[in-house]
Specification:
There is one protein chain. The protein is built from nine helices and nine strands. It starts with about 20 loop residues before the first helix and ends in a 25-residue tail after the last helix. By secondary structure, it is α/β, with parallel strands linked by helices.
Length: about 280
Amino acid sequence: MSAPLPIPATNRRPSRLLTQNREMRQIGVWNWSLPAWAGRLPDGRTYNTCPSAGVCAQACYARHGTYTWPVVRAKHHSNLAFVLDDMAGWETAMVSELGAAKFRGAWIRIHDAGDFFSDAYLEAWMRICRARSDTNFYAYSKEVERFRRLVEPNPPPNFLWVFSYGGTQDAALNPAADRLADVFPNEAAIAAAGWASQEASDLLAVLGPRLVGVPANRIPTYLKRLAGRRFSEWQAEIDAERNARRDRRHLRLAVDNTRPDSQGSAVQVDQSHAA
């Protein structure tokens, strides 16, 4: 029997699943990361880890800077490949790693890049949370409909989440009831809107007041695209433009359908969508 083929270096399973960047280390939070938004794995497979991303994809901090470094990108690709190729094995490995003493009472941020891209993946995370009830978990997400179905009816007590504006499901958010995060141009804009900033600690997104303001990263290109707006405002503009285009496509001119055409028959016009 021939020996199994070796796993390519770019697809090897990561030895550690949870890491800490400098910002999270300062507040004692550990990260789990995927590659941000859409791309291609080294083996040629395409992916979209943020299927409900809207304008956020145009100004995403995780598509800039250190996140684009080859070693960081390779780590995030290997994380995703592990999930896609062996979700059960990945879940087992995550539960095992979280059994270390350093994670008892600690906080895990699920995704400082990426989102809950499928039902099966979100359900796996909910099982992980329940399996490690002595660890705290939190996440930002734009997967509103998925959370409504799979999390809100019976959330793990050690899992907190905040919905973030700037996605294709913004219209499903309820500012009167949901915990919400919105990206603002700066701290002054957050204060003027009466929202609470999470700048002092990312944990304030889930432990502080319900309406959470996130100051935009000072990346010149992204600030130019933001143009002084909040993500919610920018997304609302895009949604309005898309709806206007859709309405124009459905518009039919009302004409005199008693006028015979060149063949001598009456001109029939579908006016079911006429304005």
